[in-house]
Amino acid sequence: MARSTRSVALFLVLGVAARAVSAVSDGMLPNGHFEQGPDKSQMNGTRVMSPNAIPHWEISGFVEYIGSGQKQDDMILPVPEVEQAVRLGNDATIRQQLNVIRHTYYSITFGAARTCAQAEKLNVSVTPESGVLPIQTVYTSSGWDSYSWAFRAKHSTVWLSIHNPGHEDDPACGPLIDAIAIKALHPPNHVKNNMLRNGDFEDGPYIFPNTPWGVLVPPIMEDEHSPLPGWTIMSDTKVVKYVDAAHHAVPRGSYAVELVAGREAALVQEVRTVPGRPYRLSFSVGDAANGCVGHLAVVAYASRATLSVPYESRGTGGSKRAELAFVADHNLTRVVFQSANHYMKPDATLCGPIVDDVSLVPAVHAHAPTARRLRM
Question: What residue ranges carry the coiled-coil annotation (predicted)?
């Protein structure tokens, strides 16, 4: 009887332990909106004084807890209505311990807004990987952008840290952070009749349901593992935007990519090909129904072939199909998409054409035009 009781007790303990270390699920991190704030006794004005004052988070450096309508001098800080945020001042860090599945790829999505510094950037890290994301360029009229960053879990328990490496004369000057979420990424598989992986962009970073501006995907220079499986962003500092059908016009499925940085960023995937064999690259070009009006255009490259696809946008949605025929000249062919130019909405925020539903198949016949190769 005693042995049976001990066995039941051990089973219960192990069950509790298993639940305690279960991997994080897709969605908001615990207190990811910072709605659970510090006690007033743990604050000096807006500054948080205790390392563990914000539930589920640890902090260091000059961290402030900011509410909607908060002012700095004559400037109202751009905190979403009825929400809270943290501001990372000089050398400030917020971090949270996560239980994850080893060797799995994850994407972090978080909201950030500039305040008073001119060259604000954020160091995002998940032990032992890190990347520095510039946030100087603002892509929304609200001042808030959602950023994504991916990592491969090396351990079952990791620390997610977001750090402001800046040092301003005003120690409180730094970016605002709100809404931090996570999503497991699945290795992209080839599908029937498409040599490209994730050509429909259905796998990508987490998009907050209540944010209508999509998620920025950083270049490979800043993130070794792309939050957009199968694809990389080639650029020094610029991004592409991952958008959803809930808030945008998407040509097919639930997600697409908006090319918001002109020729400063390219959406790229390398695929195995047979030299001398003809292929056909097909894709959709359109607008996201987000007010991006004008003569939009997408330029596609594959092997030595180039195709510029114009699209006359009224900013209300719509798309058309395009096709690029080419002959492979190497074992690996780089498929590249760029916006032909920079475009702006009436509120002066950057925008661009949509790319979606991309497929690559062998062709029986192909006439590949002679064209310059994109060098990256």
Answer: none
